[in-house]
Design goal:
The complex is a heterodimer of chains A (about 500) and B (about 140). Chain A has about 500 residues and is an all-alpha fold. Chain A has 19 helices and two strands. In chain A, a hairpin with a 6-residue loop joins strand 1 (about 180) and strand 2 (about 190). Chain B has about 140 residues and is mainly α. Chain B folds into two domains: about 5-55; about 70-140, no CATH class. Chain B is built from five helices and no strands. Chain B is flat, with a radius of gyration of 24 Å. The N and C termini of chain B lie far apart (about 55 Å). The chains are: A mainly alpha (about 500), B mainly alpha (about 140). At the A-B interface, helix 8, helix 15, helix 16 and helix 17 of A face helix 1, helix 2, helix 3, helix 4 and helix 5 of B.
Amino acid sequence: MDVLLLALGNVLTPMALLTLLLGTLAGMTIGSLPGLSSTMGVALCIPITFNMPPDLALILLGAVYVSSVYGGSVTAILLRTPGTDASIATALDGYPLAAAGRGSEALGMATLASLFGGLFSVVVLIAIAPPLSTVALAFGPQEYTVLAIFGLVTIVSVASDRPLKGVLSAAVGLVLATVGLDTFTGMQRFTFGHSELFDGVPLLPVLIGLFSVSQAFNLCVPAGGGVLSGTAQPLQGRRLPAWLDIRRCLRTMLRSSVIGSVVGILPGAGTSIASFISYSEARRHSSTPERFGKGELEGVAASESANNAVTGGTLIPTLTLGIPGNAVTAVFIGGLTIHGMIPGPSLFTQHAETTYTLILSLLLANLLFALVGLWLCRYLVVVTKVPGAVLGPMILVFSVIGTFALRNEIVDVWLALAFGVVGFFMERWRYPAAPLVIALILGPILEVNFRRSMQIAHWDLTTFFTRPLSLGLCLLVVLALAYPLWNRWRQRRHAPT
Amino acid sequence: MTLDTIDRGVALLLGALCAAVVVTGLGMRGDAGVFPVIAGTLGGLACLGIALGTLRRRAPDAPPPPLAYQRFAVWCLCVLGLLLLMLSAGTFIALPLFVLASLRWLGQLRWPLALTVSVAFSALIYVVFVYLLSVPLPGGWLTP
């Protein structure tokens, strides 16, 4: 308790609050720009922290991390250009809301849901970090394999009303995920001798291409195109979501926050899986599932509370065991070690004051981005009134420069443009792009863990059903596959003949 | 062209690609080909399902909105020009020209407004990416 009070004192100093504010604003900006990920934001800030005291350094890194995840939702909702893969699910309902003139309401809900998810995960981090991290350690290759399959099944079922098109999109993503040097045998797969492909198809250029570049095409190509649909009155919605809507979404936010925190604890699982699983669960529990994908506030709330809950979740194994949950926390570990703090149990004993300062600063960062976000959403939404032919070139330039900034490789830019054209036609022909991107993310996790499981079990497939955790996840996969089929059968049975 | 015809074409093209992936995967050393075979088979089955779905008797899907071919071609040329000019002349010659051309030809903005927006936007890109983030964007002719 004394440590918590000392940490609170550290966070509430004027210098700490200023650092927090600057970190929050920087994180929101970085998260909203295509190509600039949370990882890059935290990595860019590390050199700035070299000469800072450890407390302030960690406050800055923490603020950039949590607010950049939220920042991705702003452009995902208003322009359908998710800054990161964490916000793809947000765009599914956020953009239709913006197109209907209810962008401000959607942004407000995204902000409140992000705040809810963020605060929930920090409370989890403070309260039950060590026992939860031991659960994460119980996950072996079998569990990761089934979890990745669960993620894929979930995404295919929510991303399109034509599941076969979703399956094809995911299969293309899985094939693309096999490109590059095989990590087990060292064999080149589908590289055609190009050294640029040895590391595989890079994720971010594909993500930027399919979502941002294709959106630039969607805005520019039709004469008189724009974000607002033809029938929508500009900004006809409320400035903030109604209390009734917030109350309706509370259960979804709580469920999604739990999912986000749990998925966040699992190393390598990622924010996009948490968002899509939560989105799918929200739709499954909703009394009006048919409204999902067409502009449902609950969809935005599910995705945003989950992806922000991941931030606290990923820090649990990072701080307690020294195992980074994702790329951002791996960079975070770099930041900690620079300041002489070795991640692991010693953080909660030797460096308890600084560690709790970081955790409390995450709480404040969540509150701060929510305040800034709620204040800004009424102004940000004006962007939806800008004609498409003006917005399009700007989105394209940000996409091109953002993609180049990833590795300073012009090949990435060509790749983003190629996938932009593919994404443009995919949307016209009603093939969902989200399963392709998510399959590209989950493909390596699935393959590596599947092959590891098979090597351990000598190609005995029953290994997935003999471990309790793996069996539980298998049942979830069966449920995720069977539920939509059962639902469709029930609808057909009750439909008037 | 109806959506069913497009779906059939996509299924044929991607089905052939998936078959090629499966065949290549089967020839790979050790267990390196297992995952490509699984992914290719999944894709092949999805293509088969889509193709068979188009043959079923049902209400046709609404066709995609008509494509404005002329604007699509102009936009593609602008984008291609941006990339080529970025590599040869440099980023900060290509960017304002691209934005100006797009705003003028596609957005129908008046010259002074289009010029102001393109210069201001390029300046913003310079501040964010070159000044703040130190990204070494292609310099081209402006590089000493």
